[in-house]
Design goal:
Layout lengths: L1 E5 L11 H8 L5 E8 L5 E3 L20 H4 L20 H8 L5 E6 L9 H10 L6 E5 L2 H10 L4 E6 L11 H8 L3 E5 L5 H9 L3 E5 L4 H10 L3 E4 L2 H9 L2
Parallel strand pairs: 1-2, 1-9, 2-4, 4-5, 5-6, 6-7, 7-8, 8-9
Antiparallel strand pairs: 2-3
The structure holds SN-glycerol-3-phosphate and magnesium ion (MG).
Length: 244
């Protein structure tokens, strides 16, 4: 069972920050998941929402700020406001952080609402760092995955699924993912079933489930024999895995 620290060790530290990623590295995790958007001046930046306001003390869209403007915003979590490792990071900064580790990075391209035209930039950065074997690229926007695959079909891709509409008109996620030609289905805990996991495995697809934060769901995912989970509490997940 592979454990990904979802948005870093985000249960205890501000999500998608260098601090949260650094804390995740200190845990026994297989990978780190993060979300990528693009700034006004073309930098790949790591933040979950299109809008900065939920996680940072500011207002407005990521795409309307330059990187140096984005860097000025302090994080919203009170005890971390002054922490310089709790600013909006670039993807490059995260690559620098993990380059001498064996951690896998799941780069989620957050192009569902705004299409940033970021695919080539992500691929260029991966190539620059020789991270081809170190990354899994995913997106809810399956058109974005198609673009990535057209640009580079040698990387690993994961198709994200949340609702039934995400795999329509196919009958199930496995059928959809096979047509898309991805490495994994990255599926929500509400949509996943034992049948889907078994069918995915029969079809050579990995199954990674988000977001797995409570012991009851953690045990369920172990019993489903999923390949990995994304958790805000990777330490707790590891503790539960050890029970088996
Ligand atoms: O990549 C798994 C998960 O992060 C997808 O949902 O909204 O947490 O980015 P979200
Ligand atoms: Mg994500």
């Amino acid at each position: 069972m592979k454990v990904f620290a979802h948005r870093g060790a985000s249960g205890d530290y501000p999500e998608n920050t260098i601090l949260a990623f650094d804390k995740a590295l200190a845990l026994d995790v297989y990978g780190i998941e993060l979300d990528v958007h693009k700034s006004k001046d073309g930098h790949l930046v790591v933040i979950h929402d299109e809008d900065i306001q939920r996680t940072f003390k500011g207002k407005g869209l990521v795409m309307d700020y330059t990187l140096s403007e984005l860097k000025k915003f302090n994080c919203r979590k009170f005890e971390f406001i002054e922490n310089l490792n709790c600013k909006i990071p670039t993807l490059r900064e995260v690559f620098e952080l993990i380059k001498n580790t064996d951690i896998i990075l799941n780069i989620e391209a957050k192009t569902d609402l705004i299409h940033y035209d970021l695919e080539q930039d992500v691929i260029d950065l991966i190539k620059e760092y020789n991270f081809e074997e170190k990354v899994l690229i995913s997106s809810f926007n399956h058109k974005c995955i198609k673009i990535f695959k057209e640009l580079n079909n040698n990387l690993k891709y994961g198709a994200l699924y949340d609702h039934e509409k995400d795999y329509a008109p196919e009958a199930n996620v496995v059928e959809h993912a096979k047509k898309l030609g991805v490495y994994s289905i990255n599926i929500s805990r509400d949509l996943v079933t034992k049948e889907i996991v078994d069918l995915a495995h029969e079809n050579g697809l990995k199954v990674f489930v988000y977001t797995v934060n409570t012991p009851i769901i953690m045990r369920k995912m172990i019993n489903y024999n999923v390949d990995g989970v994304f958790s805000d509490y990777p330490e707790l997940m590891n503790e539960i895995i050890k029970e088996y």
